[in-house]
Write a structure and sequence with these properties.
The structure is a single chain. By secondary structure, the chain is an alpha/beta fold. It folds into 2 domains: 8-285, Alpha-Beta Complex (Spore Coat Polysaccharide Biosynthesis Protein SpsA, Chain A), CATH 3.90.550; 300-418, no CATH class. Helices cover 53% and strands 12% of the residues. The chain has 16 helices and 10 strands. It has helices spanning 8-17, 32-49, 68-74, 105-118, 136-147, 166-180, 196-203, 211-227, 251-268, 270-273, 300-334, 345-360, 366-371, 374-388, 393-409, 411-418, and strands spanning 22-28, 55-61, 93-98, 123-126, 153-159, 182-183, 192-195, 232-239, 280-281, 284-285. The strands form 2 sheets. Strands 3-2-1-4-7-5-8-10 form an 8-stranded mixed beta sheet, sandwiched between helices. The protein has a two-stranded parallel ribbon with strand order 6-9. β2 (55-61), α3 and β3 (93-98) form a beta-alpha-beta unit.
């Protein structure tokens, strides 16, 4: 086992198990309230859809103090008949332990990849530990494309409220789509399926002492799979309902985590993305149906104040990054009354590309640079919320599609300034 340092009791469990077809990883940190439901849904999915496969559930925990691990140990389906399931040929094994390394989801995932490698697993899935909407069907949809379809990576497709996932909708999806030419709708979704061989490939990458180990893992997994030619698909999982992150709570650190990982990957894979023009759809599995979504409440007045404050305090930095022309456009927005505020999508695509170029040219320290982008992102999000407040989900999605096309159209600008 290459440089894998499992604790003694984990080693013993792995030796006892020997080999497994399927690994389902559940990273956790203080999720005692929700993780029991997730574990039971996973067990139900394995029993219903993969009764003949040898399966292991791995809970890789970040040192929870609320009894998360006990809940995992004690969670099981008491009566398989009640949910119309057969008893499995062999019971599902559970491995529960605290991971080592930099605290964060990436370190938890690394341990899951290592266990998959040791047990020579064919297919793996990882699911968030705070999911309230997970059903046994998710397990089929994340694993079957790998086991039966020969895919290496399964990204999730969810219905989300039009104001949920704004970092994905306004930055990560349009940017990764324009860069790598594949329309993977939820590149940082959190619930993924992948092949054993892709898990092994991930372990060959030397990123585990970086921010990827903390929080950039989702976008890193997606981009690494696409950029290295692995076979990628998506599965429709219904609604993603989980412990919602308050968009007003420390947004700048979340933005920094995701965007710095995305920009860092642009450095790694510039040779891959620079020649690509246009995009193609990615095949999708699952039956798409309409779901009721929990409303997301937002305070646009407060968001626009954040934007204007940014203009006052960060104006000189923005001028340096955006150049005089785009900066004067941004300045003009600051003077608009709330009711007329509109952040043009072309200007926004330009802003994101300018920040990517500033990151590439190391104009400022990375954290300082990306955190200075926060008020611009908040202004763009407020603009979308004001425009989409009376739209249905389909119309709101069409607006995101327009934004993506704008990123594609302006890619030449990024490429010619990158060199």
């Amino acid at each position: 086992m290459k440089n894998t340092t499992f604790r003694t009791e984990v080693h013993e469990q792995l030796e006892r198990i020997g080999q497994a077809d399927i690994i389902v990883g559940i990273p956790s940190f203080n999720n005692a309230r929700t993780i029991g439901h997730v574990v039971r849904a996973v067990q139900g999915g394995l029993a219903k859809y993969f009764p003949d496969h040898k399966a292991v559930i791995v809970n890789s925990d970040g040192g929870s103090s609320d009894g998360t691990s006990d809940v995992v140990h004690n969670s099981s389906i008491d009566d398989f008949n009640a949910i119309l399931l057969h008893h499995r040929v062999s019971p599902v094994s559970k491995i529960v332990f605290p991971y080592s390394g930099i605290p964060g989801k990436g370190s938890a995932f690394r341990t899951i990849f290592e266990i998959a490698e040791v047990l020579v697993a064919k297919a793996c899935a990882v699911v968030d530990s705070d999911l309230r909407s997970i059903t046994p069907e998710w397990i089929e949809l994340l694993l079957k494309p790998v086991l039966v379809g020969g895919y290496d990576y399964v990204s999730p497709l969810y219905h989300r409220h039009k104001f949920d996932g704004t970092i994905t909708n306004s930055i990560v999806y349009p940017l990764t789509r324009a860069l790598y030419g594949r329309r993977v709708r939820q590149p940082i979704g959190g619930d993924f399926g992948f092949s054993g061989s892709l898990a092994q490939y991930y372990l060959t990458k030397d990123v585990w002492q970086t921010d990827v180990a903390r929080f950039g893992i989702d976008i890193w997994m997606t981009t690494t799979a696409i950029a290295n030619g692995f076979k990628v698909t998506q599965s429709f999982l219904g609604a993603k309902i989980h412990d919602a992150k308050d968009p007003g709570a420390d947004l700048s650190s979340m933005l920094y985590q995701v965007v710095s990982a995305t920009f860092e990957l642009m450095e790694t894979y510039s040779g891959v993305w620079m020649p690509i023009r246009g995009t193609e759809p990615v095949p999708a599995f699952g039956f798409e149906y309409t779901v009721g979504l929990e409303p997301v409440n937002v305070n646009t007045a407060r968001m626009l104040n954040t934007f204007r404050e940014g203009l006052r305090n960060l104006g000189e930095i923005w001028l340096d990054i955006l150049g005089a022309g785009d900066f004067s456009e941004v300045e003009r927005l600051g003077a608009l009354p709330d009711s007329e505020f509109h952040f043009p999508i072309g200007l926004w695509a330009q802003v994101v590309y300018d920040f990517a170029l500033a990151f590439h040219k190391k104009i400022l320290p990375a954290e300082h640079l990306i955190k200075s982008m926060t008020p611009l992102y908040v202004g763009k999000t407020a603009s979308f919320i004001l425009e989409a407040k009376d739209m249905g989900q389909t119309e709101a999605d069409a607006e995101i599609e327009k934004l993506c096309l704008e990123f594609e159209k302006r890619k030449d600008y990024l490429v010619s300034n990158w060199k």
